[in-house]
Each structure stands twice: as C-alpha cells, then as structure tokens.
Specification:
single chain, mainly alpha, elongated
C-alpha cells in the first residue's frame, strides 16, 4: 500500500502542476476527462493512505503528523477548487495555486520527517 500511496501522491502533485501551468500560462482548464482523472487519483490517494495508516493505528503509534497531512490535503483541495474554477479571476487562481502549493510542500515535508510529536 505504501508504494501505491507514494505513486498516487506523485501523480497528484504532477496533475496539480500541470493544471497550474495550464491556468497560469494559457488560461485554460481541464476538460471533463482531466477532472475525472483528478477525482480518481484523489480517491486512490485517500484510500491508499488510509490503508497504509491502519497498521500504525493498531500498534498505537503517535500519528499527529497524519492528522496534519489530512488538514493540509483538505486545504490543498479547497484551494485548488477555487483556483481552477472557470469563473475564477486571475488573482483568485494565483492565490489558490500558491496556497495549494504551500499545502503540498507541507505534506511532502511531513511525509519525509514524520515528527513524533510536534504539538
């Protein structure tokens, strides 16, 4: 499950960067197929992440970093929704992309350092 989750994370970040490039440089949005692919990748990312965490929950490992990653993922998704809406202005798109990018960077940092207890 860990490898599937890592693959889905890379694909998610790749789709985000591609979609950001389209919006910022060409002012285009994903078509219906691109939106469906993004939703499928998000679903697989969440399911594979939940499956990877289940053994850690059974072992009573401190998982504050998982909660932080979930909060950052929600922030990234909501910022992406606002940024990639067809009715969004250029300023809204840029701000949403910046917020989502910061959230994704935070997720990647947490994935690598896995702090024991940062609260």
């Amino acid at each position: 499950m860990k490898h599937l989750h890592m693959l889905m994370a890379l694909i998610t970040i790749g789709l985000f960067l591609w979609q950001s490039y389209l919006v910022l440089s060409k002012n285009k949005r994903f078509d219906k197929k691109g939106k469906i692919a993004t939703h499928i990748v998000y679903a697989l990312l969440i399911v594979s992440g939940a499956m990877a965490v289940m053994p850690l929950l059974a072992a009573h490992v401190p998982l504050q970093w998982v909660v932080a990653k979930i909060v950052l993922l929600i922030a990234a998704i909501s910022a992406s929704i606002k940024a990639f809406k067809p009715a969004a202005s250029t300023a809204q798109s840029k701000t949403g992309i910046l917020i989502a990018l910061c959230a994704y960077i935070g997720i990647v940092v947490l994935a690598f350092i896995k702090p024991d207890n940062f609260i």
